[in-house]
Amino acid sequence: MNAEPDGPEDRLRRFATIWSRAVFPVTSTSSTRPEFERQLLDPARRLSEALLARAFDPEAGRAVGAALVRAHCTDPEALSRSLDCVDAYLVLYCGGDGDREALRARSARLQHAMAAGFAQALRERTLAEQEAIAQAALRAQGVVAQALHATEARFRAVFEGAAIGIGIADLEGNVLQVNGALVRMFGVSEQNLRGRNVQDWTHADDAPQTWKLYEELVRGEREHYHLEKAFHRPDGTVLWTNLTVSLLRDPDGRPQYQLALMEDTTERRLLNLRLRYEATHDALTGLPNRTFFFERLEKALGAGEGQRFGLCYLDLDGFKTVNDSLGHAAGDRMLVEVADRLQACATAPGEMVARLGGDEFVALTTGPDTRRGVDELASRIMNALLAPISIDGRELTVRGSIGIVEGPAGERSAAEVLRSADITMYRAKSAGGNRFELADPEADARAITRHGLTTALPAALERGEFFIEYQPLVHLGDGSVRGAEALVRWLHPQHGVLSPDRFIPLAEHTGLIVPLGRWVLEQSVRQARDWQERHGGAGLAGPLRINVNLSPCQLTHPGLVQDTVDILERAGVAPDALCLEVTESALIGADDDLLKPLRRLAEMGVDIALDDFGTGYSNLANLRRLPVSILKLDRSFTQSMQQFPADPVDLKIVEGIVSLAHSLDLGVTVEGVETGAQAEQLRILGCDTAQGWYYARPGPPERLHELALADATG
After folding, report:
1. Can you give the pLDDT at residue 598?
2. Do the bridges between strand 400-408 and strand 308-316 make them parallel or antiparallel, or are there none, so unpaired?
3. What is the model's pTM?
4. Is the peptide bond before 76 cis (omega within 30 degrees of 0)?
5. Helix 414-430 / helix 290-301 crossing angle, nearest 10 deg
6. Does 148 score more than 80 pLDDT?
7. CA atoms of 714 and 706, how far apart (whole Å)
């Protein structure tokens, strides 16, 4: 079926046409331009499909880069023009209706993949050419030796007609003959080359084994060797070659001459260096990227005994706000300015700065003593960020949080060092930002444990690793057990029993608190039903109630009321047997929308207790609008009552709170009762119920029934 006018196929062909016109002049293909355009149609289609694919696959870009080499587009300008075309026209003609920013980001990644594929294919082609040259060298050795012994005419035909540079020297290294290709490579006259000694051509970049191999050859201990070697040209430039040197022997087998075959690889090497730079440097800031940084860090960590390293991990505070309010272009300009400032901070030997991605940067210092140096480096970075950055007439303040890791080389891997720096940086950020913190192994271990617990939470709920303990609620007037508070525990496979303060904040952060809270409520209500049945069967009066904690996240969940109703109905438990505890801090400034679910539950008969009362600094008059029936007084007000005499100020405060609560027809429960004197004092002050270790620690549900029976029969 033909594509409609200006359809995707037409736009794809336009892109291929533009691409072929840009690249054709710098190719060495024998095809015509229309034929070359048809060759580019399939790579263009692969780029288009990779651009719009659901998941990014760099293989498409690498395949296109390799296709350019197969199409004889081996000139570095061909790659440069191809990348320019993809950058300018791929999203325009093949992007469809997709998100332009996302498509341009994917196009940039495809360009990097193309460059990598181009370099790999060029390298493979080079290796094949080198093999061919080596074979030619071996053949040339026989031809030249025969020519020397046979006819000068045949030798000259091979010698002068060769496309690669050829030189002949005696065993002392004196150059005897050179061909025209070698003269052109060095850019000098034949007379200038003849008479030179081979050992004059030493270069600072010579491989360590270069002259060892040469000595072995002229002594007759080896027949030939092959390596990459640099030569100085008279104009100051460097000539890079693939050099093959062979030994020529006389008819009796004695070494007589040395034959050198040279292929000029200068342009290929420059291209490889350019591709290497692009692969190891950030395109926006020009700083070394994550790949380059890891290479340097691993080298520093493997430096040996006596060497140390210091690392500063920087994350900009509030950078997302800049992107969201001023746009990504402004954010990019800020990153470039920050990169320039950071680079100016790390100019000493052994120091470097890199961009890991986004607004994250690292600075590395190495040497025998980095303890003080890394602190000074962090201070320079913080000072460099003090001055505002001017963008589009706006003065933007730059703040950053830095995590510092310092230590001896050889003890940790690069991944472990960076993880520690990342954890430390977030510790600085959580402390308010605009500061730096030193790595603390104990803090790292806690952070890693928290992360492990966070990732294990969902599976733990599915595997049934949670259980509930119950702490009795005792009536202060007659000492009878009136109910219990449900307290969830986690039986972790490695860490043992974990209390709620270890995992409830993590569940809140991940949203798992909603299913976990629903499970706790369901188990607790079922337990309340079991208590009621056993309580009634034992002839005891009054049901045992259950108190269940609600987190702030559960309060805002739209299914709270319906879940509670369903759980009560399935268990056959009346609403007045349930009390939901909400912390005072969760209700500070609560609007009617937040209070509406609590009001509906209270109207059904569910009691609402205001937990940790007195810690939230709320207005006491606010109690009139909250649908609560019980105040749970925080233990901080009653701790002084464990000793005699009690703090008179605390006594007055508790007395006032109890009086206020009773005047509003609210019950008062006290937490953390640990002594008999404390319980008696609270009874005298008029508190209604209490819980704490004085009565019982949290335990299994059977213990609560036993306590209730003991109270009734005692």
Report:
1. 93
2. antiparallel
3. 0.53
4. no
5. 110
6. no
7. 12
